[in-house]
Amino acid sequence: MNFSSDNWAGATAAVLAAVTRHNGGFAPGYGGDPLTQSVNQRFAEIFEHPVEVFFVGTGTAANALSMAAAGRPGGLVFATTEAHIQNDEFGATEFYSGGMKIVPVRSDAGLMDPAALSAAIARFGGRFGLPTVLSLTNATECGTVYGAAQVAELTAIGRAAGLVSHMDGARFANGLAALGVAPAEITWKAGIDILSFGATKNGCMAAEAIVVFEPGRFPNLTALRQRAGHTASKARFIAAQFEGYFENGGWLQTARHANAMAARLTEGLRGTARLGWESTANEVFPVLPKATIARLRAAGAMFYEWPAEGLAEDEDLVRLVTSFATSADEVERFLALV
């Protein structure tokens, strides 16, 4: 019963098969191989738009290099208080961007408040720095999902202030699966300029990509990636993972499964535990008695407590994350224990 994180799961059979399939023989390095070019074209087909694709090894690299590509001296990055770039990446955005400042913006269950974004831009812009980037996470760190209209509303506010709009898509497939829309609808059509496209949490070994929706807009990305040490010499193995990931729509099938397991957890917990908030992707946040948490752990369940305010002394908010590898049996055993 492992609900610690979707990055604890292994790789899918399709991804492993693709890596094995492309392991034989020789191929040019550093992205000059035919497979990398083919996968780049696949990204364009998926997004129904010309794109530039830069493979990297981690989501932190994708985020930080996206910030650096859009960066300028004294720049401000507007992100939610829960954003990964704000809380989990050890100052990578600040370091790679040459010192841009992240301005936390109020959110509701991970979803940025448009009025709060406007207020933050008005308060900090010009006086404390230069408004430069808006960063949204979809699906959010709270398991909630921005719809196309919500993304468009926020990027319109950003565009009016001259901001580049970035999306952290570490769980992009889970967000898409929850919405049931085409990738274009919540990215470039809604005003997103650059996307950190994550696949590692949804069945790859280590495959992330920076996707630019206006080719040539960020000409420094090639040099920035090289200097950061994320230009893979055997890029075909990242490309192979993406080939297997996209094969027969598997990336959305795995995301739908993860979301379905989270939905089953939600419904099973309803009535026996209260939820911190409603979520629609693959993360569930129930409030549980500490005695129940101890009993679950003693029975082999794995998960993390999550920071929260306003709780009683004998309870905690916990985060349960499902993945493509989560089984219905695991979910039912966990619910029975609760």
How would you characterize the overall build of this protein?
The protein is α/β, with parallel strands linked by helices and 338 residues long. The protein has 13 helices and 14 strands. Strands 1-9-8-7-6-2-3 form a 7-stranded mixed sheet, with helices on both faces. Strands 10, 11, 12, 13 and 14 form a 5-stranded antiparallel sheet that branches. A two-stranded antiparallel ribbon has the order 4-5. The mean pLDDT is 96.
Produce a short descriptive summary:
This protein is an alpha/beta fold and 338 residues long.
Produce the secondary structure layout.
Blueprint: H1 13-21, H2 34-47, E1 52-56, H3 59-70, E2 75-80, H4 84-87, H5 92-96, E3 101-105, E4 107-108, E5 111-112, H6 114-124, E6 130-137, H7 148-160, E7 164-169, H8 172-179, E8 194-198, E9 208-212, H9 221-227, H10 236-246, H11 250-269, E10 274-275, E11 283-284, E12 286-289, H12 290-298, E13 304-306, E14 315-321, H13 328-337
Parallel strand pairs: 2-3, 2-6, 6-7, 7-8
Antiparallel strand pairs: 1-9, 4-5, 8-9, 10-12, 11-14, 12-14, 13-14
Percent helix, as a range, is 25-40%
What's the number of helices? 13
The biggest sheet amounts to: 7 strands, mixed
CATH architecture of the largest domain: 3-Layer(aba) Sandwich
Arithmetic mean pLDDT? 96
What is the tally of beta strands?
A: 14
Uncertain stretches: none
Features:
338 residues; alpha/beta; Aspartate Aminotransferase, domain 2; Aspartate Aminotransferase, domain 1; 7-stranded mixed beta sheet; 5-stranded antiparallel beta sheet; 13 helices
